[in-house]
């Protein structure tokens, strides 16, 4: 297996090591491999492919982090065709952008991935709702 070197903050390394110890992993490499697999397969869901989805996405970052605000605004413009709404709020010491998207799984996956890739974003969470199944529930 090839060996790669990855730079990461000391705190994250410590958390990886603690996670490895608590869950009986052989070491931090196994935790990183598992995390990479989970990330790459996160949006692999045959049930949701080719469905029209509503995605609710929240993005947390430190208050007034200009480069994050700028990038979030760029992404809002790039993905404008799928964004039904966007709201910017302040919670504790954080800026929170809340997006509602109407899109397919691939578009939502791309949008979430780009948000996560912004340096200094603290958290990106989302929920997905298949619109067809909601219609079926209403008709029943
Ligand atoms: Zn703000």
TrEMBL record:
Keywords: DNA-binding, Transcription, Transcription regulation. Gene3D superfamilies: ACT-like. Chain A, domain 2, Met repressor-like. GO terms for biological process: regulation of DNA-templated transcription. GO terms for molecular function: DNA binding. It comes from the Archaea. Pfam families: NikR_C (PF08753), RHH_1 (PF01402). CDD domains: RHH_NikR_HicB-like. Residues 54-128 form the Transcription factor NikR nickel binding C-terminal domain. Residues 3-41 form the Ribbon-helix-helix protein CopG domain. InterPro entries: Acetolactate_synth/TF_NikR_C, ACT-like_dom_sf, Arc_rbn_hlx_hlx, CopG, CopG/NikR_regulator, Ribbon_hlx_hlx, TF_NikR_Ni-bd_C. PANTHER family: NICKEL-RESPONSIVE REGULATOR, NICKEL-RESPONSIVE REGULATOR-RELATED. Belongs to the transcriptional regulatory CopG/NikR family. This is CopG family transcriptional regulator. It comes from Natronorubrum bangense JCM 10635.
């Amino acid at each position: 297996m090839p060996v790669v070197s990855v730079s990461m903050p000391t705190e994250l390394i410590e958390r990886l090591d603690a996670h490895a110890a608590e869950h009986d992993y052989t070491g931090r490499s196994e935790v990183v491999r598992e995390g990479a697999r989970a990330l790459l397969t996160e949006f692999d869901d045959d049930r949701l492919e080719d469905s029209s989805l509503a995605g609710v996405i929240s993005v947390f970052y430190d208050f007034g982090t200009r480069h994050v605000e700028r990038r979030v605004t760029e992404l809002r413009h790039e993905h404008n065709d799928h964004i039904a709404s966007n709201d910017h709020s302040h919670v504790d010491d954080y800026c929170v952008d809340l997006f509602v998207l109407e899109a397919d799984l691939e578009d939502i996956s791309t949008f979430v991935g780009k948000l996560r890739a912004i340096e200094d974003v603290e958290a990106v969470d989302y929920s997905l709702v298949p619109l067809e199944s909601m219609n079926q529930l209403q008709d029943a």
